[in-house]
Automatic annotation (TrEMBL):
Domain Olfactomedin-like: residue ranges: 239-501
Name of this protein: Olfactomedin 4
GN (gene name): OLFM4
Signal peptide (residue range): 1-20
Species of the source: Suricata suricatta (Meerkat)
GO BP: signal transduction
């Protein structure tokens, strides 16, 4: 046999002892030995003629390259083998490294997904917290709204109780009518308590009865002393025979706007027409939740329809901006979106009949009211017609008042004030006099400033104005009703104005 093959056999034997593969290579191996390596010549010669062993021999020899061998004259085999540095199965280790690398990449990919999920969970947790806070606020608002309704009613009943006691003490003659009124007021108080416990939302009927009782009490009070000099009567509706606003009533909550709690910005009021001063439909124009776009408005023929959300006419526009809306002579006037233009809309068909630019007017939150955005152009109505309250760059943000022709929207006259508009929370016009408000706290406004376009005079006032919510978005005055229609964080409020009976 060739010496090199004998050396290879010896090497394979050694490797088989190390790796446990000897039985596969040499199934009948015995304990014979070589002179140098533990193999016998019989073992070697036994394999010399076994052709079936050659494939294994050849395949194993491919992985072993550093060996030499020879047979000396005595027939002894001498082998020289250079073994690798380690007996580790290198190929398996390499495959293991490749597998580990693939697993590491997959793990990194899954780990990145987990990190994304953690971030999303954190975002959703914050959204959930915000939603919880909003729900709590809405719940509190609902409770505050109904409780406040009944608190106001209770105060009115108590005032009537005090008045009936005074009437009994000072009334001359038969007190039968007064006694009857006292019984009715006592029954009314009990009815309010029952209604509060049973149905906190239905306050319309009780308000009507209170109004009827108030009118009867006023009649009794007026007839209790015939010799008492009569005080000057209040100014006639729609007239300016008075000395200006000197006080304001407590607010009456009319309704939450029909679109819900989220629609905190907007305006509402009643159409005023000099030809039919006592008539006029009611309108409600809440802005979208962004506080900028006026897209939908609703009309009601009567206040009862508005209170009961019935017989409504819904209309849509795509160009309204801000809550400076006003209605006069069955036309709605709004600021056209993203411009200084004023649009005139026919309420009979919801069509724009005219648009005109308000010269030099600042717009798009340049000089809007404090805490109320997108109301740089505020339209108003009073006994004299249509007005617009705004600012210009030339006025450096101070309030500018212009009288408009309601037919052509041209400016008839303009007055410049010294009051900075962004420090004002809102404003309205009465008999050509601008009245401006400011915020004192979350429950109180103050009518603190006036400018009289009739005389050019301006000055300070201190008329306290209670409110239901924190921000007043708009104030509209109705000349015949002599009321303010206030949009207060989504709630529709009414105020009665009290005038100085002596003309200036």
């Amino acid at each position: 046999m060739r010496p090199d093959l004998l050396c290879l056999l010896a090497l394979l034997f050694l490797l088989g002892q190390t790796t446990g593969q000897l039985e596969t290579l040499v199934p009948d191996a015995s304990a014979s030995s070589f002179p140098d390596s533990g193999f016998s010549s019989n073992f070697i010669s036994g394999f010399s003629s076994n052709d079936s062993f050659r494939p294994s021999l050849d395949s194993e020899s491919q992985s072993l390259s550093n060996f030499t061998g020879f047979e000396d004259d005595h027939g002894t085999c001498h082998c020289s083998v250079t073994l690798p540095d380690t007996t580790f199965p290198v190929q398996r280790v390499e495959r293991l490294e490749v597998t580990a690398h693939v697993l590491s990449q997959k793990f990194e990919k899954e780990l990145s997904k987990v990190k994304e999920y953690v971030q999303l969970i954190s975002i959703y947790e914050k959204k959930l917290v915000n939603l919880t806070v909003r729900v709590e606020i809405m719940e509190k608002d609902t409770i505050s709204y109904t409780e406040l309704d009944f608190e106001l009613i209770k105060l009115e009943v108590k005032e009537m109780e005090k008045l009936i006691i005074q009437l009994k003490d000072s009334f001359v003659g038969s007190t039968t009518i007064v006694d009857q009124l006292e019984v009715e007021i006592r029954n009314m108080s009990l009815l309010v308590e029952q209604l509060e416990t049973l149905d906190k939302n239905n306050v319309l009927a009780i308000r009507r009865e209170i109004l009827a009782l108030k009118n009867r009490l006023k009649e009794c009070e007026a007839s209790k002393g015939e010799n008492v000099p009569a005080s000057p009567p209040p100014p006639a509706p729609g007239s300016c025979g008075h000395g200006g606003v000197v006080n304001i009533s407590k607010p009456a909550i009319v309704q939450l706007n029909w679109r819900g709690f989220s629609y905190k910005y907007g305006a509402w009021g009643r159409n005023y027409s000099p030809q039919q001063p006592n008539g006029g439909l009611y309108w409600v124009a809440p802005l979208n939740t962004d506080g900028r776009v006026l897209e939908y408005y609703r009309l009601h023929n009567t206040l009862d329809d508005l209170l009961l959300y019935i017989n409504a006419q819904d209309h849509r526009m795509t160009y309204g901006q801000g809550s400076g809306t006003a209605v006069y002579n069955n036309y709605m006037y709004v600021n056209w979106y993203n411009t200084r233009n004023i649009a005139k809309i026919n309420l009979n068909n919801n069509r724009v009949e005219l648009t005109r630019t308000l010269p030099d007017a600042a717009y798009n939150n340049r000089f809007s009211y404090a805490n109320v955005g997108w109301q740089d152009i505020d339209l108003a109505v009073d006994e004299n017609g249509l007005w617009v309250i705004y600012s210009t760059e030339a006025s450096t943000g101070n309030m500018v008042i212009s009288k408009l022709n309601d037919t052509t929207l041209t400016v008839l006259n303009t007055w410049y004030t010294r009051q900075y508009k962004p420090s004002v929370s809102n404003a309205f016009m009465v008999c050509g006099v601008l009245y401006a408000t400011r915020t004192l706290n979350t429950r109180t406004e103050e009518i603190f400033y006036y400018y009289d376009t009739n005389t050019g005079r301006e000055g300070r006032l201190d008329i306290v104005m209670n409110k239901m919510q924190e921000r007043v978005q708009s104030i509209n005055y109705h000349p015949f009703d002599q009321k303010l229609f206030v949009y207060n964080d989504g709630y529709l409020l009414n105020y009665d104005l009290i005038f100085n009976k002596e003309p200036k």
